[in-house]
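Limitations

Structures in this collection are predictions, not experimental determinations, and the ligand pose is part of the prediction. Treat each record accordingly. The example that follows, with nicotinamide-adenine-dinucleotide as the small molecule, is included so readers can see exactly what is and is not provided: the inputs are given verbatim, and the output is the predicted complex.
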Amino acid sequence: MAAGLKAMARRRAPAPAAGPPASITAPKSDRANLLDLSGKHALIIGVANKRSIAWAIAQALSRSGVRIALTYPSARLEENVRELAASLDNPLVLPCDVAVDQQIVELGAAIDGEFGGLDFFVHGAAFARAEELDAPFSQTTREGFRIALDVSAYSFIALARAVRPLMQKRGGGSMLTLTYLGSERVFKNYNVMGVAKAALEASVRYLAAELGADNIRVNAISAGPIKTLAAMGISGFSSILGVYRERSPLGRNIDASEVADAAVFLLGPGGRAITAEVLMVDAGFHAVGLV
Ligand SMILES: NC(=O)c1ccc[n+]([C@@H]2O[C@H](COP(=O)([O-])OP(=O)(O)OC[C@H]3O[C@@H](n4cnc5c(N)ncnc54)[C@H](O)[C@@H]3O)[C@@H](O)[C@H]2O)c1
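Predicted complex:
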């Protein structure tokens, strides 16, 4: 009994007055300033053209005062990316094929040289070979599996490792990747990409657990279907759009600017207590069974 009371007393000991470390408390700004990210720097991977979700995020961050670095994976896409970047304020444009370790290391060094650190990292790279998406799932090849998981999931880990020291210089930062509900449920023709997204979402949790000590948050946005270059590689994509319109609670599809607004919230001070999270931005489709 006495031992039990002692244990209770120990449990009831007053909590230390300190509260959360100063570095992760809200800035003393008022709420109107939650969207003011002036002076911050972001690396955004995954802009291919003006329909890219990553491009919508780049524009939204830029409107909030963030200086942006964009990347292109190959010479074929460089001109596109440079043209888009020209509409941003003082952008940095660098090469990075996320399947090549050396390019990731060089990207980190180039960004550090120019920005002297980094506040935000947005990962919007994904790829699977057309044949893996078209064939029945059981026909997934070893090489097709490797490529999809490498580009779409492992690259987030490798890039997180490269930008971590840059975020440490700033006393913390925020990372965000883009995923899809195909990680949890079966969608026709999504196939190996669903497996890659499951690995990506698990990586978000493991990275968040490790990088929290550096005041770095790691999250994902799971977006509803949007007509982009990557999406058009999935046969029957238009019919997926129709199903979402019909069944989602909001009765409509979403657009990239809506993902971008959620991204600015999650990356910025509004999301300061959120990490290891997969935020659904899909008009509520994920919640619906049979209604
Ligand atoms: N469009 C959708 O319906 C939808 C829904 C949910 C999630 N997502 C995800 O959003 C992210 C962005 O896709 P999107 O729909 O904007 O299409 P997108 O085609 O515009 O973007 C995909 C990007 O991946 C890049 N990429 C592919 N291989 C690469 C490599 N080796 N190195 C560097 N970059 C590489 C491409 O260059 C492109 O910029 C992807 O992760 C995608 O899975 C898309």
